User: Fold this.
Amino acid sequence: MAISQFDSFIKTLKKVFMLDQAELDFGIYRIMNQKRKDIEKYLNENLKTQVTEVLSNNKSSQVAEFENELKEARKAAEMLGISPDDMPKVKDLKAKIASLGNTEDLENEVYSHLSTFFSRYYDKGDFVSQRRYKKNVYAIPYEGEDVKLYWANSDQYYIKTSEYFRNYRFKLDSGKYVEFTLKEASTEQNNNKAQNNVERRFALYEACPVEVINDELHINFTYEPYPKVTKQKTLIESAFNAVKDLLPSEFKMDVLALRPTDSDRSRTLLQKHLADYVARNTFDYFIHKDLKGFLSRELDFYIKNEILEIDDIDARTTESFLAHLTVIKAIKNVGSKIIEFLASLENFQKRLWLKKKMVVSADYCITLDRVPEKFYAEICANDAQREEWVKLFAIDEIKSSQPDGFFKEGVVTGYSIPLTEQFLMENPFLVLDTAFFTDDFKRKLISVIDDIDEKCDGLLINSENFQALNLLQCKYESNVKCVYLDPPYNTGSDNLFAYKDNFLHSSWASMMKDRTELAKNLMNRYSTIWVSTDDGEYANLKLNLDTIFGEDNFLCDIIWNSRKSVSNDAIVSGATNHTTLFAKCKNIIKENKADFKVDANEEGFINPDNDPNGPWKLDPMDAPGIRTNLSYGITNPLSGQIYYPASGRHWRFEEKDVIRLMREGRILFGKTGNAKPAYKRYKYEAMGKGDAITSLWDDVKTTADGTKLLLNIFGESLPKEFIDQIKPKPVEFIDRIINVSTKENDIIMDYFCGSATTAHAAINRCRTGHKSRYILCDMNNNFNILTKPRIQKVIYSEDWNNGKPVSRKGSSHCFKYMRLEQYEDTLNNLVVKKNTLMDQGGEFFDGYMLGYLLDTETKDSLFSLDWFVNPWNTKLKITRNNETKEEKIDLVETFNYLIGLKVQRISYPKSDICVVEGYNRKEEHILIIWRDCTKVSNEDLNEFFRRMAYSTRDKEFDKIYVNGDNNLENLKTDGDAWKVTLIEQEFSKRMFEAE
Assistant:
């Protein structure tokens, strides 16, 4: 039986509402499947009724008018004694009534147009602009700009990461793991083949479909172009049928265990994960920023361009045109309701995406010279920390000065040898990682560090970079001096960037725009942004940055000779990369261009006396100039000898300045203390006094040098695929950028940090007395294998060979590293609670479904007051390596970032009370009291305030935050704000403020 227009319409809407993916139980699909019956009821019953009513109401008024005229015409005919059916007017009115058409035909026309419209704009989980002016011609929104960068997804958030694409793992009941591994994935760089009926598909890697590596089962796939007629479902079914017969016996039972669904009672665990794997990498790349506005405008355009058909108006009868208007009204009415519903679902996802994410964990890496010796005994007893030091720093090869010969040189003695406090004192640059210690140890250590945020040299965030930048907004607004980015070059074949098929460049452009706009907010007026790319995306990048920063703030395009070798199989062998440079405000850079120079004297600065001002070199006190007879000399206070300037020269400073400089120790008398006086010139004073930056950098090292350095740092422990994928920049390249664009204590940010070359360069500069702070973000699995360990290694030693430190000459250093909740985690923690409002019918039901369905029924899982009863026991489901577990969330750290607090100190005067002090962006002095409300009552809280001499009445603190209802005396400050504020109240407001 032929499918009806209504059934076809419903089939289309099921795709649009993601109801055709019943087997998927992750992310938004899990939520939509829970609401399937409610949504289907609305689509099948309510919408159909509304279409019928709109058509009937509009048609009936017109038919009634003609039927009244027909009735009068019949009466007139009868009065004249003629047959009504022979009367011309009667015939004309009958024809008009017939021309209005029957309701069923009109309904089918409405359903046909609505199906066409919504299927046109929907593409595998996303809504994409495809405004067709006529066949094969698309209309681009234009508002009179001189030049406008436009791409298909420019009004959408790019939400995908490459994690599941490159590395999809799941755990079996036996505890073993299975990984889907991508082999030889390739796509066309210009993505043109997709236009020729070809799209990429996942298929089994036939050369080696299954292998066991380190007791882990790997099932290998390719991601290659196939004709569009080749269905992905068919390829995955073929893969399953092949793999099930190749499974090793130790995996077979668990991998083929049943995971049935309502529609497939024989589905296995392997089939479930195959479906999830494909869906995660082909669906839902974007969230629309204004879906209602977009679809409403497109529906109007569709009606005017493809239904109203202006050119045919003259050819239509009045009645036919009225019937046509009836159809248009129905399309507009019903289409608008569907758009309202879709927009509410998309806005719900947007809210989850923009929600500030929780800090799952926050730890510190601190060199032992900054750790008080009272902690050493506990450090020595920590086996996990010792094993980490052996792995990272080869401490089992250190020869100690201890009498018992601790850790014999050149002898690998294993992990069983205990640490001693003497050994810790002899190795001040060992990097302690608080993650290996108890919460109690960590709290005690943090409590003794005053001005803890200022003491932190770096911040490392393990997160999708949009979420990291979003959380940093309040705390680091206008605080970053330099942004350096080395994003995926988007060649289409490197697997470092996941993009929607047919939208390679559009996906990349959207990803860059959203994140760069957030980064711009963090940059101060004097800051610059440097973005590296190759020829493939350079043009899109330049126009993107023009849009964000304004083309007037473009400074230059730096050409870097990234490799010395050339490719023999290329028409033109590209051996250079672009680094596009923009200023936040070019005029300010011009006014302060002395600060934006290449250091002319990078070499020769030393610091043999540990001068707190950093490295220095000696300059002669006299210089060529006007011959003059001076009445004073400089007396050496040690020998009493008086020195006068040589003939034809003069002292650089006046006598009063000489006296001051001698007092400050900046005038020295050579190595012997008896030589000609010289002036101590610090390196920071030489900064910015060199040459202007050039746009051709062919004098720095290459990518091959960056790779060689990584191999020296890590040796054979670094997986080869990391090296192949990352193509690290040489440290010297980033060092030059930092040198040119920052001063002492400035922050450099890199939110595509990869192998952490930016941090390496910053740490190297700290060694030369130019302190640079850094903020790095990275999402990939190499965070714990490459990114963080590299920073730890570079802190410990400045020289490495084959994974071993050549020297143990390190740097005093501290960095914080955090892991954040992700968008997928937020989705996984949603719990849908059916609201009794659903039981009400009529217009109320429609309104609830269209606007409030998911917001109302999931609100308790997005924010719960229960979290704040005992803030140290708040848990969420967090996914790592596709394995979801409940983990504790760090509410204290999260709140510090939400309110933008520069933390001075964190203390734990009692085990169930935490006190945080600091300043917010307004320089207000903030006090935050966290308590376990199950143990610390309001009376206990009042007593704690008395004991700590805290007062809500004095001016010591401008704001006080406390969790849990309390009876602390409160006062109003500026405006209507109260001095004492509930943490829960402020937390909720700040978490969702990005909406």
Observations:
- The first strand starts at residue 122 and ends at 123.
